[in-house]
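testing teh design pipeline on a random one, pls ignore if ur not involved
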């Protein structure tokens, strides 16, 4: 009895597998093989049992076979009914500003105005004390363009890129897998109700658990995909600068920007030199004291040498007189 129950289960699973691959002949052949089994007097009762399972399996197989057909119909006339194409949009912005706090306040409050939210945020400052922030913002796809229009208030864009990904086929494929697995789950539940021995129940329950796990996995993937489609991603980096870059690419714009840049560099050069001088005042004081000490020491040495030289010159005439008298 148990072996015949297991063989019926294997026939059902084979029918479902062949049907999911797109061939209806596999399910029919499985049914023919089941019908070709000898039906002795002892097996007549079991034949009705297997026949019921085959009926459930054929129903499941037909539903699985309809999934690709419905997918084809969806890509044709019914695609509008499933919210048209599934497009994932991702935008990347690099911004700079001289008014960091004002620009950051706009970026923090603006997503909520369009039904979006800030997924993650990281903020810090560099060695010069200039602040920066990196943000990942999720905005409803239909509001993305409106959100981007006023996002650059108090700042300017230095880099922008956008990418799109069409996941319509992947989306429909996941839905088809889920529907096929649900059909298989219903067939297994029907078999579980009719199973009359423990081994068959355990075997069917094992397959049922595996099917449920696959359904949950596909549904999780579908939810993630739907969230990425419904909410576009904006990767944004804002940096505080002392002076914003020139964005005017006309002749006079670039010439004026070049002149302004040179004057700015000259001013920055004097500024940096002044900062360097002020920052090295302690070294200058030490050096000045050291030089003063050396000067004082040198002067004292020179004075002593001069005194000795003067004393020698003053004593030399008398010594000459003594020498002359002695000769006389």
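output:
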């Amino acid at each position: 009895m148990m072996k015949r129950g297991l063989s019926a289960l294997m026939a059902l699973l084979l029918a479902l597998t062949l049907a999911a691959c797109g061939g209806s002949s596999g399910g029919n052949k499985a049914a023919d093989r089941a019908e070709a089994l000898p039906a002795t007097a002892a097996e007549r009762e079991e034949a009705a049992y297997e026949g019921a399972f085959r009926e459930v399996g054929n129903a499941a197989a037909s539903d699985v076979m309809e999934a690709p057909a419905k997918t084809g119909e969806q890509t044709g006339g019914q695609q509008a009914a499933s919210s048209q194409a599934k497009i994932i949009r991702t935008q990347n912005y690099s911004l700079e500003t001289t008014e960091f706090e004002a620009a950051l306040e706009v970026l923090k409050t603006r997503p909520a105005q369009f039904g979006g939210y800030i997924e993650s945020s990281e903020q810090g400052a560099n060695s010069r004390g200039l602040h920066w922030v990196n943000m990942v913002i999720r905005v409803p796809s239909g509001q993305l363009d409106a959100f981007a229009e006023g996002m650059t208030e108090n700042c300017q864009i230095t880099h922008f890129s956008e990418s799109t990904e069409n996941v319509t086929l992947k989306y429909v494929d996941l839905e088809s897998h889920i529907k096929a697995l649900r059909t298989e789950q219903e067939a297994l539940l029907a078999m579980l109700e009719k199973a009359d021995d423990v081994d068959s129940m355990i075997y069917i329950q094992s397959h049922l658990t595996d099917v449920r796990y696959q359904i949950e996995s596909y549904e999780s993937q579908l939810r993630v995909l739907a969230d990425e489609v419904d909410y576009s991603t904006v990767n944004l980096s804002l940096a505080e600068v002392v002076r914003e870059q020139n964005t005017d690419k006309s002749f006079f714009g670039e010439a004026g920007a070049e002149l302004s840049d040179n004057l700015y560099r000259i001013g920055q050069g004097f500024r940096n030199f002044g900062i360097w001088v002020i920052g090295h005042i302690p070294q200058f004081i030490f050096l000045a004291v050291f030089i003063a000490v050396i000067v004082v020491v040198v002067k004292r040495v020179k004075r002593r040498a001069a005194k000795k030289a003067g004393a020698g010159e003053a004593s030399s005439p008398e010594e000459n007189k003594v020498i002359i008298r002695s000769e006389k």
